[in-house]
Structures are given as structure tokens and as C-alpha cells.
Amino acid sequence: MTPPLTRRTLLRSAVLAASASGLAAGTTGEARAAPLPTPGTWALHPFALDEVALGPGLFAEKRELMLRHARGYDVDRLLQVFRANAGLSTRGAVAPGGWEGLDGEANGNLRGHYTGHFLTMLAQAYASTGEQVFAEKIRTMVGALGEAREALRHDPAVLSVEGRFGPAAENVRGSCRYVDLPPQVLGGAAELTLAAWVKPTHDAAWARVLDCGDDTTRYLYLAARNADGVPRFAITTAGPGGEQALNGTAPLPLNQWSHVAVTLGAGTGTLYVDGTAVARNTAMPLTPAALGALAHHWLGRSAFAADPVFAGALGGFDVWSRALRPDEIAALQHRRGSGDLASYAFDEQTRGTFADASGRGLTATLRRTWGGPSHPGFLAAYPETQFIQLESMTRSDYTTVWAPYYTAHKILRGLLDAHLATGDARALDLAAGMGDWMHSRLSKLPAATLQRMWGIFSSGEFGGIVEAICDLHDLTGRPEHLALARLFDLDRLIDACAADTDVLDGLHANQHIPIFTGYLRLYDATGEERYLKAARNFWRMVVPHRMYAIGGTSTGEFFRGRDVIAGSIGATTAETCCAYNMLKLSRALFLHEQDPAYLDYYERALYNQVLGSKQDRPDAEKPLVTYFIGLTPGHVRDYTPKQGTTCCEGTGMESATKYQDTVYFARADGSALYVNLYSPSTLTWAAHGVTVTQVTGFPREQGSTLTVRGRTAAFALRLRVPAWATAGFRVTVNGRPVGGAAAPGSHLTVERTWRDGDVVRVAMPFRLRVEKAPDDPSLQALFHGPVNLVARNPATSTLEFGLYRNAALSGDLLPTLTPVPGEPLHFTLDGTRFAPFFEGTEDPTHAYLRRVEPRVVFGGVDSGVANPARADGTTLLDAVWAGAPFAGKEALVARVRSVVDAWVADGLLGRADGEAVVRTARSASYAR
Predict the structure, then answer these.
(1) What is the pLDDT, as a whole number, of residue 29?
(2) 750: β partners
(3) How many CB atoms within 10 Å of residue 186?
(4) 30-39, 728-737, 902-911 — which is least confidently predicted?
(5) Judging by beta carbons within 10 Å of its beta carbon (0-12, 13-18, 19+), is residue 668 exposed, middle or buried?
(6) pLDDT above 80: residue 2
(7) C-beta atoms surrounding 272 within 10 Å
(8) What is the rounded end-to-end Cα distance, in angstroms, of the chain?
(9) How would residue 245 be classed by pLDDT, with cut points 50, 70 and 90?
(10) pLDDT tens digits for 571-603?
């Protein structure tokens, strides 16, 4: 079924009108834009971030750490790569580095992605807090991105800086710009002098000052640095092996002006630096005359594709048709040159052409190595070449093409979130332009090409772009935007998952998780059931079959075999991005169909991996979020992963600024309010004129109190009963108990007319329990309620513990542990401290333990009998405690007698030992 069109059409018209008005007026606005419409396929309506305020507690504490980072970080650093790509001034900013810089992994091929994450974080922070500092940063970033897009729409223009003798032309690193000289510049001279004022800003080898040639066989060049880091001039008609060359003796200093000159004449070449001869070669008969007509004549660009573009400034370039004398070279240190073949001062301050003062009229032109965008909506922090190259790729090579549509998604998502949070029409215009550009590229490609592209590991990754494009379509109403979203269908995966065929083994996890959230949005837009079936079945292939106890998934970024948990634990398990995207998918599925399992998973991953991925200290420079969370024994979390500015740090910034987005949902018709998470918060439900304030220390407190204020309103309150709440779930309204079933893994409904001041109290006692790895039941994770308790111990081998020794009649294992006074959720056992996974420390931890119960012990009393086991690993004590909870001691003893008799009959236990076990059970004392 398709969602109602009238409401959506009205919304689109209002948004587009506001966008057009804002653009015309040049305003940005600070009020929220109209929210995205709730699709007709959603049974529930989520609340916006500004409708749910976090109260004091664990989430607010974690969020504040990230907000400090958001407030303090200089966004000009993020904008540096966009401004550089557009040939604009970077204002002295230094790129963040890591994945968000040219020196990071894979040559910075993912740069721009982190800026999108940061925009989303700022938008969420502003929506949540209303602090103007976040809105101001958004305005700055959106404005700068608009300037970058505008610059890319036009031919490159000179970036003027102060030079040696006046203005000079800067070539910012990452701009991919060069000066194209006319073919007559060398004049076919039999003798030659080249002279240039250069100010290199980067130490990359083989960046050219000058390169003239046909290809990589017949050429001459002047490089600012060779492989040894010193200037080099070479000329050849036989490629690199035939080069006649001159090499300097010292590097040109960075960020300083240097004068470099070369003379050729009478078979001799000389290289000068700052007026001093530093190299001389008397075996250099080749000259431009010998090279003949050449195809290209460039300043700043090499004919060798792997060589970098020159980064720095040019303060003058001259060519003479003779070899200048040493004194003439020395004189050039104090004045501009006046070459008779060509003479460029680079003192222009506008446009992209450079006048020739030689009298020959050889005007030079500033160009991009990649030409320019294929569409005016293009926006990126690197050239369009990655998108172009992907279209012909057949295998992954992220050093050449690294997930360009993934990066486009992050930028698009950030712009949409910026618009929705602040009403900035410029952000929507930029986002719509990106959609138009992508449609113009992808709609021209054959379906087979698209299927091949999206199936390529890493290079073809596109993240959550489908979801973002569907949101864009809701805002613009342009049919090409919906058509664009459908161009990302990966049919073989959709069809397999829709048929419930598990094909996940060996797939890159985070490449595929977010696409199903997008396919759910396509279901919303088209009504095609295969999208919904595929998303639902995919989720069930991951949960629980590829889920670690903390809620994370993936090993070394990949899915492994079904139910292989113990066998896949390593130092690179549980990529943090995977948890972020599984939360989004779980949330989206619950909005469609209210299976409590989705929220049980959501709570597990949120309260454990996601909270635990953020270090518990502030930092203005880094968000301090994990990439992998190794589950090996004694693992220490790394909160500054890889080279920095990674995908997981990006999603970590987002997670920490939207903790409240799933606490409450409402029925689409307003008839019910779902309390999904027990988190201190205040909901403003404008439709009913009420607020619901939840006060709790959960999960340090085993319950919550909700107070309704405002108008009298009739609605059902649907309280989630967690699957782990086996010790009871009790609810009172104004002190009176509420009846009804409260089965674990369900909802308890309280339906009434609510009045101002009504108080709902929820009590849900925690129990200590274990969760077993399906492929090794003796490897277990320990939980107290929703909280994974990890052992803090430096040992690098799996720790062994027994837990039955003081088990309570309820089956609760907690009495075996000793609480740490004054530290909620901290316990000790056999000298080892257990603490919540969500605490972001650098302690060595053990998330999984080896369960060892060598002797039969009840209530701390040792029977003296070894604990026997069946072939499948089930022990006698396992069989006994599987019958918990017990109404009293006699019920437990009866269970022990029954199990003992069965095991004696099966020959697994001797009669005398069995009687000793029964006597011990009868004589012991137990906690309730």
C-alpha cells in the first residue's frame, strides 16, 4: 500500500516554496523545517529530537562528552578538503587527517564523509539542545559547501596570495589544478633557460613545476622533489631509462619562496637554486629542438598518472631561448624575469588566465586535471573521477576508488539533517542538486552495470544513500529522486533475502546493513512487498545468528557463518558502524511491525556496544569512539582508531547526539503511546497537549517512574516488557496495581483517560543470567538485566568461573557475586571485578567467560561429587537449574531428586553420589 499523497504533496509544496523564498532572500533561518511526513506504511509515529528531552543520567552524561567535542571543533578543518577541491582558499585550516585527508588511508579517497557525519551530529545537537553554537556551525558549513559547489560549476579561477614580487598564484593541495601553457612556449629552442619562483607546501615526490611532452617517453620536466627529496630536471626521448638529468643537493624548503632555474646549451645542463649552481651535467645534448612538437606543456602537472599535482604557489615562470650566464641567473633573485619565449608573473587576482609578458601573446590557462563536473549539482571533496572509474570497475581497489556513493550519502544525509534542524533552504538546495547529479549519472547506465557496481566490495559500497534519497524525494516531490533511489537495488541480495535464503557468509557487514533501511523506505514509497520481506528476513539472519552478546556483529568487518559466535571472536569483532546501522534497521522495522524482538535487540546494542563505544572523557580534537571492539580475552578498547576520522567515529558522533530518538513512539492515529526504553526523559506530545516525564536511574535502577502532565487525554500506554524481565514486571498507576499479562518480550497496555499528575511506576527486578555461544555453550556472557557485565582482568586467556554455587531459588545467579559498595552494577567474583560494558574505560576486559562447574555445590555447600556432563556438554547442575524458578526449597529438592534419578538410570551418576547430591541440596540454604 502506498502512503497518502495529499499530505505529502502539501508538505512538498510548502518546503519547496520555503526553499525558493530562502534562496531568493539569501537567508538561512533558524527554525526547524517542516518534518518529514510519516509514511502511510508506518503503524507508529516517531517523535522528533526536540520533542524528547533527555533528563539527568547515563545518556545525558555520554551526550555531554560528545557535545563538548562538537562545540569546540573548528569546522574550517572539515571544510578544508571541500575548499581545496574547489580551488578556494582553505583559510589556513589543516584538514583533520586520517580518512579525511590526502595523507590518510587509500590516499584520502573517502574524504568528505566525515564532514557529512559532523553536519548530522550538529543538526541533532541543535535539535536536542537549541544551543546556537550548533546552528552557527551549521550555517558556516552549509555556506562554505555552497561556495564550493558554485566554484566547481565554473572554470577555475586564480587563488591569489602574496608572492616574492607582488601577487602570486597558489595551487592548494587537493585542488587538482595546473597551468596549461600554449604549445609554442618552448619555441623549439636549441638552447634554453627555464626559471621559476616556487613555494612548495607539501613534500610529495615527483610533483612537477614544469612538464612538457607527448606521453611518458618524450618529454622534459622540472620536479620540485625527486625520490630523494631534491629538485630534478630531466629531458629524454626514450622514457625514464634515457633521461639526461640534473639533481639538486638539498630539498626546497616548504612554505618558503625558492628560485629554481635550468640552463641548457652546448651539451651542458646546469641546475640553479636561489641563484647558486647546485648541479652540472656536461652530457646533456638534448634540447627542445630535439624533442620537436609536444602534445602538452604544463605547470604543476605530470604526464605520469601516479605523480601528484604540485601543491604550493607560483610567483613567476620565464623561458629564454638561450642559456643565461650565472650572473644573469643570480640577478633574477632581485627582480622579476623577462623571458623572451614566455614570461608569466602570475599576478592576476581574478579569472583563470595568465598574461604572457614576453611579447609573444602566449596566454596560459588554469585548468583542472579532471576537467569539471558532469552536472551543476555535483558536490564532493574530491574530483568526480572516482564516480566515473567505478562505472568500469570489475573488482575492488579502494586505493583507486573507495566507496564514492557512500561518501555522497554522508554528505547528502548531513545536508538533509541540517535543513530539517535549522530550516536552512541552502542545505536543501545542495541536497537536491546532489540528487539531480546522481540521477543524471546513474540513469544513463545499463542495469547490468549498476548491478555489477553495487556488488563490488568496498568500491561499490553506498551506505544508507537509499534512505536519504527517499527522504529527499519526500521533501522535493521530484520523480527523478524516487527513480534514483531505485537505481541502487542490488537485486541478487534483495531476492535472496526476500526468499529467506541466507547468503550473508563472507559479505562485508556494514556495506549491506544500511541498504536494508533504505529498502524499507522504498517499500514505503512503492508498496513493493519484496523490500519489506528482504529487510525483515535479513534482520533475522543477523539477530541472533551473527550477534555477539553486546549486540554487535561482524568479524574483521565481515559476516561469518550462521551461529558461528565463539568461532569468530577476535581482536577485530563488532565494528561499531554495524551496531549503529543495526539500531537504525531495528527501529525502522518496529515502526512497520511491532515485534518486541526489534526493541529487545535495540536495547541490547544501545546499552552495551553503543554506549560502551564512547570513551568516558571529553576531547576537543577527537570524538573518542571505537572502530572495532575486540572480544578476545583482556581486550583494551581503542578510542582513537586507525588514522582517525573513520566511519565509526562518524557514526559514533551521530549515536551520541540522538540517544532519545527511540524512547517513545505514538500510534499513527494517536491512540497509543509506546514506551520503548526506560530512560530519563520528557516527551512533549503536542497532539494530546501532554508531557510525559520519565525519572529513572535505569539501568542502575531497576524500574522507572512516569508522570503525565497537561490536558486530560485518552490513550493507551504501551509499556515494553523486556525479554530479560523474567523476575516480574509490576506496574502501578497512582499507587494502584495494574493487572494484565506482562510476559517477557511483550507489551503491557494501560488504557485510561489520563489526567494531570497521574503517576505510573514500573518495577522490573534484574536477574543475573548467562547467554551461551551457540557453537560453544561453555563460552558465556554475563548479564544483569540488560547490562553485559565484563570481567576486568589483564589475563589474555579465557577466564574460568563457576556461578551455580550460591544460585537463588529464582534461578538468579547474582548471589554468587559480591556487590561493590557504592558502585552500582559493579561486583567481584574470585578476586576479579565485573563492571558494565557501557563504561567507556581502557581497562582490559573479558566479555565472554569459560563456564566451569567442576563440583556439585548448592547454597555454598560442596557435595564432594564431581559435576557430570552429557555428551552435548549439559551438566547435572545445568539440568537442575533449568527448572528454575522454584517456589521454595522443597521444589528445588524435588527437582534435584528427579534429575539425579534420571542421571543414575542413564549411568551418568553413581547411586551413592546421587544421594550425596540430594542430601546437600536439602541441607543448604538459599536466597529467594
Answers:
(1) 46
(2) 717
(3) 23
(4) 30-39
(5) middle
(6) no
(7) 26
(8) 52
(9) very high
(10) 999 999 999 999 999 999 999 999 999 999 999
Question: Could you write out the DSSP letters of every residue in 742-808?
Answer: --SSEEEEEEEEE-TT-EEEEE----EEEEEETTEEEEEEEEETTEEEEEE---SS--EE--GGG--
- Across 412-432, b (16+ Cβ under 10 Å) vs e yields bbbbbbbbbbbbbbbbbbbbb
Which DSSP string corresponds to 96-135? -BTTBSTTSGGGGTTTTHHHHHHHHHHHHHHHHH--HHHH
How far is Cα 915 from Cα 897, in angstroms, rounded to an integer?
Answer: 8
C-alpha cell of residue 640: 582513537
d(CA 64, CA 386): 37
Distance CA 224, CA 253 (A): 10
Mean pLDDT rounded to a whole number for the chain: 95
Q: Are strands 690-695 and 759-763 parallel, antiparallel or unpaired?
A: unpaired
The model carries a pTM of 0.94
Q: Report, in this order, helix, strand and coil percent for the chain, each rounded to 5.
A: 35, 20, 45
Residue length, the chain?
928
The three cell numbers of residue 166 are 607582488
User: DSSP assignment, residue 608?
Assistant: I
Beta bridge partners of 614: 625
Question: Side chain identity at 531, as an amino acid letter?
Answer: Y
**Contact (Cβ atoms closer than 8 angstroms) between residue 151 and residue 143:** no
b/e per residue 375-396 (b: at least 16 CB within 10 A): ebbbbbbbbbebbeebeeeeeb
User: What are the CB-based long-range contacts (under 8 Å, 24+) for 590-595?
Assistant: 590/44, 590/665, 590/676, 591/42, 591/43, 591/44, 591/46, 591/665, 592/41, 592/42, 592/43, 592/520, 592/523, 592/532, 593/43, 593/536, 594/43, 594/44, 594/674, 594/747
CB atoms closer than 10 angstroms to residue 92: 7
Chain centroid to CA 50: 23
Angle ∠(19,22,27) on CA atoms, nearest 5: 145
Locate cell 540528487: which residue? 435
Q: Give the residue ranges of DSSP H helices in 477-575.
A: 479-486, 491-498, 509-526, 529-542
Q: Cα 406 from chain centroid? A: 10
Question: Which set of grid coordinates corresponds to residue 176?
Answer: 587538482
Task: For residue 109, give the amino acid letter.
Answer: N
For residue 502, the model assigns a pLDDT of 98
Rounded to an integer, what distance in angstroms lies between the CA atom of residue 852 and that of residue 849? 9
Instruction: Tell me which H or E stretch contains 436.
Output: helix 425-442
Structure confidence at residue 37 as a pLDDT band (50, 70, 90) = very high
pLDDT tens digits, 306-320: 999 999 999 999 999
The pLDDT value recorded for residue 30 is: 64
Instruction: Classify each residue of 240-250 as buried b or exposed e, where b means 16 or more C-beta atoms within 10 Å of its C-beta.
Output: eeebbbbbbee
To which residue does cell 527437582 refer? 895
Distance between CA atoms of residues 94 and 103, nearest Å: 12
Find the mean pLDDT for residues 245-254. Answer: 98
Separation of alpha carbons 559 and 575, rounded Å = 11
- Per-position DSSP letters for 169-204, written without gaps between them: EEE-TTS-EEEE--TTTTTT-SSEEEEEEEEE----
Q: Which residues of 468-488 are buried (b: 16+ CB within 10 A; e: fewer)?
A: bbbbbbbbbbbeebbebbebb
> Cell triple for residue 496?
535472496
Contact yes or no for 172/223 (Cβ under 8 A): no
Please say if the pLDDT value at position 339 is more than 50. yes
Amino acid letter, residue 884: A
Distance CA 82, CA 175 (A): 9
Given this model, what pLDDT does residue 741 score? 85
- Cα–Cα distance, 421 to 423 (Å, whole number): 6
Q: Are the C-beta atoms of residues 829 and 891 closer than 8 Å to each other?
A: no
- CA separation for the pair 513, 577 (Å, rounded): 10
Residue 563: strand, helix, or coil: coil
